[in-house]
Write a structure and sequence with these properties.
Layout lengths: L5 E5 L9 H11 L6 E5 L5 H7 L4 E4 L16 H6 L4 E4 L2 H6 L4 H13 L3 E6 L3 H5 L3 H12 L10 E5 L13 H19 L7 E5 L4 H8 L6 E4 L6 H16 L1
Parallel strand pairs: 1-2, 1-8, 2-3, 3-4, 4-5, 5-6, 6-7, 7-8
Helix pairs in contact: 1-10, 5-7, 7-8, 9-10
The protein binds 1,3-dihydroxyacetonephosphate.
């Protein structure tokens, strides 16, 4: 699998200008970890400010609309994110799928819109606890990939997939190393089935209660190419501890 470990903070609906000091501190320290690719997805209201505040890290949106413009009150398009300085956008986060009723087809259209606008896309997938308990986790995630992966010509260089088990988000619970390894292998196989050889290079991130004390273990699992971090990305101190763990592994 190609590429530096990719550590992405998803601030969700958190952050006002008062948090710009955190992102500045993250950016300054990220410069000391050249073997880790670091990015933050602040709320859209902060994108312009964050763009001006950082030099090293990537910045992104948390969602985008599938259309470029139009009568869609409250929505933000991929070209708008690009115009605000975003490098990427997250699509298909479970909070969007569940709370906003987004289907796989919706997520696929959003991912395709992001790539068409020149943004990278982080496409989220993950099973619920009931689905895992029923032994259906890999089948569910495979189905989400089948339905929501962007269909594009050539290798999907600007695509990352984030495996985020819904039951691990914000709960402090994480799957076992064996379960993460099995799921990431299953995602890899599905990406190769969808994209051919190019699917081998798509980065697969893990997300769900990643913290300083479990980051090294999670990031050491085969085919875990980085982490999508929620709560622990909200302060520079806790986020940089995760970036530091990734850097230590990259140095080994
Ligand atoms: P937590 O790290 O807070 O569990 O959130 C994970 C997540 O949803 C990132 O997108």
């Amino acid at each position: 699998m190609a590429g530096l470990p990719y550590i992405v903070g998803n601030w969700k609906m958190n952050g006002t200008r008062a948090m710009l000091s955190e992102v500045r501190a993250i950016d300054r320290s990220a410069a000391r970890f050249p073997k880790v690719q670091v990015a933050v997805a602040p709320p859209a209201t902060l994108l312009y400010r964050v763009r001006d505040a950082v030099e090293v890290i990537g910045i992104g949106g948390q969602d985008c609309h599938a259309k470029d413009s139009g009568a869609f009150t409250g929505d933000i398009s991929a070209p708008m994110l690009k115009d605000a300085g975003a490098d990427f956008t997250i699509v298909g986060h479970s909070e969007r799928r569940t709370l906003h009723g987004e289907s796989d087809a919706d997520v696929r259209s959003k991912a395709e819109a992001a790539l068409a606008a020149g943004l990278a896309a982080i496409l989220c997938v993950g099973e619920t606890e009931a689905e895992r308990d029923a032994g259906r986790a890999e089948e569910v995630v495979g189905g989400q990939l089948e339905g929501s992966c962007p269909r594009i010509d050539g290798a999907p260089e600007k695509l990352s997939v984030a495996y985020e088990p819904v039951w691990a988000i914000g709960t402090g619970r994480v799957p076992s190393v064996e379960d993460v390894a099995a799921m990431h292998k299953s995602i890899r196989d599905k990406l190769v089935a969808i994209y051919g050889a190019g699917g081998a290079d798509v980065r697969i991130l893990y997300g769900g209660s990643v913290k300083a004390d479990n980051a090294a273990e999670l990031l050491s699992i085969p085919d875990v190419g980085g982490a999508l971090v929620g709560g622990a990305s909200l302060t520079a101190e806790s986020f940089l501890a995760i970036v530091g763990a990734a850097a230590s592994l990259a140095d080994d």
